[in-house]
From TrEMBL:
GO MF term set: 3-isopropylmalate dehydrogenase activity; magnesium ion binding; NAD binding
Organism: Dehalogenimonas alkenigignens
Coiled-coil ranges (or none): none
Involved pathway(s): Amino-acid biosynthesis; L-leucine biosynthesis; L-leucine from 3-methyl-2-oxobutanoate: step 3/4
NCBIfam families in the cross-refs: leuB
Protein name: 3-isopropylmalate dehydrogenase
Binding-site residues, substrate: R96, R106, R134, D223
Gene symbol of the encoding locus: leuB
Classification lineage: Bacteria, Bacillati, Chloroflexota, Dehalococcoidia, Dehalococcoidales
Length: 362
């Protein structure tokens, strides 16, 4: 079978970790007899440097022609000045919107081998295995008015958190579908004691729950959820929430796994159903980390596990996805570690060697 994949290495360590993701994908092709046509394009700071746009039209068009998109990272300190007209992150937001990627899946699993990599006690972390479902194209990141202005009394700025019933319903359904295939527990996170948009969110969640009587729905305020992620992370199975809350909470949860270098993600344009293909973009949740770019020390596992998610959700290749996940776990069991997850008596490896080790076990 032949598949067409758009590859967006991006900025900083993006090309470093993407090379290892591609390496593992090619190993899957050899093992299972698939052909992956990889087409590379620009996004982020490298795109601004060459085209003055963080998301060139050619990039978006190529993504739309693909079966799936692999993205590494965007961001460059040269563009940190908020007064600049364009920023690398603009490309990522525009890509999500342009491809209709409304559902962001971020699995958080604490590998037994890394239970001591976090700053939390091992007994707190054991058994942690849940999925964040983050709404990705609405809320405060996209809603208008969004502006900054000067008054006679000083500067002001505003951002709006706006959600429609339809936007909420479709992301809640993603959460229910995933929960139905797992432990049948869904936590909906909001701030319904303060925010009007959260009150609508909760109302719609309750309405949708009637279609899923086999799934237990509970509601947790975002601040309480942040606390429970640290106190009792193993209590969660599937967590669904809006854009801003999901962004913050999933980064917090990355530390449960020991490093942001361990967490993959999928951004989907539809509701994932086992055995069916859903278009999506796949990326590690970490940033571009420009200070370590090209030094062969970045952890590529999040990118490699993102490849597994792509195989499962966009290409409907579940056995191949499982092979990648098992290969990554095998390498960890044998004691190989990059700098961010080093432990006593482990073997330190670089970005490229970690990719080699995982690819060899496919």
């Amino acid at each position: 079978m032949k598949y067409r994949i758009t590859v967006l290495p991006g900025d900083g360590i993006g090309p470093d970790v993407m090379a290892e993701g591609v390496k593992v994908l090619q190993a899957v092709g050899r093992k299972f007899g698939h052909s992956f046509k990889l087409e590379y394009e620009l996004i982020g700071a490298v795109a601004i440097d060459k085209t003055e746009s963080a998301l060139p039209e050619e990039t978006l068009a190529m993504c739309k022609r693909s079966d799936a998109v692999m993205l590494a990272a965007v961001g460059d300190p040269r563009y940190d000045d908020p007064k600049l007209p364009v920023h690398p992150e603009d490309g990522l937001l525009a890509l999500r919107k342009g491809l209709g990627l409304f559902a962001n899946l971020r699995p958080v699993r604490v590998f037994d081998e890394l239970v001591n990599a976090s700053t939390l006690k091992p007994e707190v972390l054991q058994g942690t295995d849940f999925v964040f479902v983050r709404e990705l194209t609405g809320g405060v990141y996209f809603a208008k008015p969004k502006k900054e202005w000067v008054t006679s009394r000083g500067r002001k700025a505003t951002d709006s958190m706006t959600y429609s019933e339809q936007e909420i319903e479709r992301i809640i359904r993603v959460g229910f579908e995933l929960a139905r295939a797992r432990k049948k527990r869904l936590v909906s996170v909001d701030k319904a004691n303060v925010l009007k948009s959260s009150r609508l969110w909760r109302q719609v969640a309750v309405e949708v729950s009637r279609d899923y009587p086999d799934v237990a729905l509970s509601h947790v305020l975002v601040d309480a959820c942040a606390m429970q992620l640290i106190r009792t992370p193993a209590m969660f199975d599937v967590i669904v929430t809006e854009n801003l809350f999901g962004d913050i909470l999933s980064d917090e949860a990355a530390q449960l796994a020991g490093s942001m270098g361990m967490l993959p993600s999928a951004s989907l344009s539809g509701i994932p159903v086992a055995g069916k293909r859903t278009f999506g973009l796949y990326e590690p949740i970490h940033g571009s980390a420009p200070t370590i770019a090209g030094k062969d020390i970045a952890n590529p596992i999040a990118t490699i596990l993102s490849v597994a998610m792509m195989l499962r959700h966009s290409l409907a290749l579940d056995s191949e996805a499982a092979a990648v996940e098992q290969a990554a776990e095998s390498v960890l069991k044998h004691g190989y570690r990059t700098d961010d997850i080093m432990a006593p008596e482990s073997t330190r490896v670089g970005t490229r060697q970690m990719g080699d080790l995982i690819a060899a076990r496919i």
